[in-house]
Design goal:
Elements lengths: L6 H7 L1 E3 L2 E3 L6 H8 L11 E10 L15 E11 L4 H18 L4 E8 L12 H18 L4 E4 L8 E7 L5 E10 L1 H5 L3 E3 L5 E3 L1 E10 H12 L12 E5 L5 H13 L4 E3 L6 H10 L4 E5 L1 H6 L1 E6 L3 E7 H13 L4
Parallel strand pairs: 5-6, 12-13, 12-14
Antiparallel strand pairs: 1-2, 3-4, 4-11, 5-7, 7-8, 8-11, 9-10, 14-15, 15-16
Helix pairs in contact: 3-4
The protein binds zinc ion.
The site of zinc ion has 5 residues, from loops.
Length: 336
């Protein structure tokens, strides 16, 4: 059984709704532990990896709240891996692979990696078996070495319950952002009695890895906006294409072009306001929309669109088909 929450915390945050007690969820781990403990697990069942986009809450003082970067309710790409100590290295390596894949996909190519380990002079400050600590730290080191990543070893920086790898990502301006974290945890398995039946038929303590890759989605997206200075690659842009009719006569055609793109799930808008074309183009540029499709008399007659690409200007006339194909390829590649 889990220990009860401290009464003072409980009374402060408990809400009763139709006789049901509601609490703000501060973290996802205990729920994954409950799932794990819903039945007896054998060494053959491990590793078990559970991921969720979990919404959690923190009391941040109003003075420190900051746009999307520091909020009170946020959603994490959180996962917990329950494994045997001998599986740690492989599991960590897979998390590092995933972190690399995600970060490079979003266009982050520079990282700073910190490995937080025990203070070798003060082992009594940490919970968990000495041998398991050694094994866990060695597993983290070997995983980092296998990736060929350089890292700084921070002795004494580990939390009392386990060693960790923290990846700081550097954005386009060289500013550091908190990135993926991989935390090995001996404490929660101990506190919540998380075990598995080993090959020897005995109960053994499982090891838990907490990991997030993007972290809090809100902050990650805030970081992305900064990284790209709002000029998202086409696959990420909230509006990928604006169709701009030159005169009112081309408005129906502009909508037909947009519908064609919408059918392929592209994010498209038609700017059919009664404004000059130059003004609309300028506005779409300021909005950093990746593509503008300008349609006038000639385009309607030829069944084409005139394509303007952000940063490149006019790239010529083509059929809507051809433009779709081009955008499809760019989006599928997640081109940056
Ligand atoms: Zn956790």
């Amino acid at each position: 059984m889990q220990p009860p929450l401290k009464p003072i915390v409980y009374s402060k945050i408990l809400q009763r709704v139709e006789d049901q007690a509601y609490l703000l969820k501060p973290m996802n781990c205990p729920f994954h532990i409950l799932m794990y403990k819903s039945k007896t697990r054998s060494y053959r069942d491990l590793p078990i990896r559970w991921a969720e986009l979990g919404t959690v809450y923190r009391y941040e003082r109003s003075g420190v709240l900051h746009g999307m970067l520091r909020v009170r309710g946020f959603t994490q790409d959180d996962a917990h891996i329950f494994c045997r100590p001998d599986q740690l290295e492989e599991e960590i390596l897979e998390v590092l692979d995933l972190a690399e894949f995600m970060l490079t996909t979003f266009g982050y190519t520079e990282y700073e990696i910190e490995l937080s380990v025990r203070d070798p002079e003060a082992k009594e400050k940490y919970i968990g078996d000495d041998a398991v600590w050694e094994q866990a730290e060695a597993a983290l080191v070997r995983a980092l070495e296998q990736k060929g990543w350089s890292y700084s070893r921070q002795e004494g920086e580990a939390k009392f319950y386990g060693p960790a790898i923290d990846i700081k990502i550097l954005d386009a301006l060289g500013r550091g952002w908190q990135g993926p974290t991989i935390q090995v945890d001996f404490n929660e398995p101990e506190r919540f009695d998380v075990t598995y039946i080993g090959e020897d038929g005995e109960e053994h303590r499982a090891v838990m890895i907490h990991r997030t890759v993007l972290g809090a989605m809100e902050r990650f997206v805030g970081g992305l906006i900064e990284h790209y200075a709002g000029a998202f690659p086409a696959w990420l842009a909230p509006v990928q294409v604006v169709v701009i009719p030159i005169a009112d006569a081309q408005i129906p055609y502009a909508h037909r072009v947009a519908e064609r793109l919408l059918r392929e799930d592209f994010r498209v808008e038609v700017d059919d306001r009664n404004e000059r074309v130059g003004y609309k183009i300028r506005e779409a540029e300021v909005q950093k929309v990746p593509y503008m499709l300008v349609v006038g008399k000639r385009e309607v007659a030829d069944g084409t669109v005139s394509v303007r690409k952000r940063g490149e200007g006019d790239i010529g006339q083509m059929s809507s088909e051809e433009f779709c194909k081009r955008l499809r390829a760019e989006v599928e590649l997640k081109a940056l």
